Amino acid sequence: MQIDTQNERPVPHTASEPQRLPAGGALIIATLLVSAFVVILNETAMNVAISTLITDPMLGIDERAAQWLTTAFLLTMAVVIPTTGWLMARFSKRTLYIAAMGTFVLGSIVAGFAPSFPLLLLGRIVQASGTAIVFPLLMTTVMQLVPPARRGAFMGTISMVMSVAPALGPTVSGVILQFGSWRWIFLGVAPLALLMLLIGARNLSSTALDDRPKLDGLSIPLAAFGFGGLVYGLSLLGAEGLPAWQLPLALGVGVLSLVAFVLRQLRLQRRDDALLDLRTFRHPLFTTTVIIMGLAMAAMFGTLIMLPLILQDSMGLEPLQVGLITMPGALLTGLLGPVVGNLYDRFGPRPLVIPGGLVVLAALVLYTTLSPTTPWWMVLIMQMVLMLGFAFTFPPLFTVSLASLPKRLYGHGSAIVGTVQQVAGAAGTALFVTVMATRQGQLVAEGVSRGDALLEGARLAFMGAAALWLVGVAATFWMRKPADVVAEEPEQALAGHAAEEPVVREAEGAPRA
Fold first, then answer.
1. What is the pTM of this model?
2. Per-residue model confidence as pLDDT tens digits over 426-464
3. Residue 425 domain-assigned (yes or no)
4. Does any domain span residue 11?
């Protein structure tokens, strides 16, 4: 099936017609891929710069204030991502891309030249506002431009970007800090982001949209307090020295606002004005995939936050050694992404996600055997096994999640997938740290050394993660490859969507998914 690049609508194909991208489609996707790589690389670059920022007399901050550079970034992402479905329905890709990359460039410049900590924090927030839009825009564009028979390969490439960029971020930052100021973490990436902005502004389409949803003024603050409050509250779990009211207040505001947000969207989507269209969950395959993805993200982020603590505090390794141990697994995931994507196109999701889920389970069980005498190379193998399992899990999940939706819901589906990543990652991190810290505190009170107590708490957290992941493994058996074209809901045809975007059936004799 081809795509009409002017209207971005599917066009029927015959069995003899080659499955290929529309003219200019490869350049558009490549531009978005490089842009996503740049913004995700910068997202993790601050992780190793905290100590440098603390010692900068111009900023005059402590460790807790410095951590807000990461916390504020994640909170902004959690607030902006849910709005991207509405933004993609309201504005053309070109307009949205220019706004996203322009905002990122502006934030990088503000942060790079910031004379004080408040301006540096503002720059990170502005950066995050642009970063939050790029990934959903990339996912939606791939689904609209790439023929169904090749979607797996392209989603595999996206998975490569998502794995390699975060892994290289701390390394690039470390090199910059070795030879120059922390300001070059921001100023060094700004020219590349500006170049991608100019390329994208020239090549992305600015087709006018026929039916633009109205902006609901109440949905935005509800989304901000709901998703932002939930992520912030989860980030406080396990933290020490907080006022007793802070955690319950943050979680309470987050949950209540999220409930109100959902009820508001259910009402607004009746006239297609929802900020986040929840009719995506009427498609069982999408719902199943999102559940598996949420569990996988929680397990991955929880492991990534625990492993450096174990290696440094319990096993006495240096930060450089920790980076060298964790990087091969991330690079392995990235390099296998396109391979797994091509296998998805040939064999579908189940031969990939079922073994991948079992490998992740095996790795989590292996982590429960860690001890102070475990050699570093064994930890390296465990981490590579874990990331190998995720390498066979994430590309099919990304592909199936959006391919199971009608085209009209691609943007909202991408927004939901991105939101689940943020919330599940925060939840996984919070649960791992809380279980570890609670058990560590109990053992330290009994006279156990802090390093051994931390390791015992981490083992308990890995046991809980393995038990929870059993749900994800069971859900993988329900996976299947969606049809090339998913029909719109009947009520949408009554609302006029049948005339706007007719359902395209597979041509007689064409290969089926």
1. 0.78
2. 788 788 888 888 888 888 888 888 888 888 888 998 998
3. yes
4. no
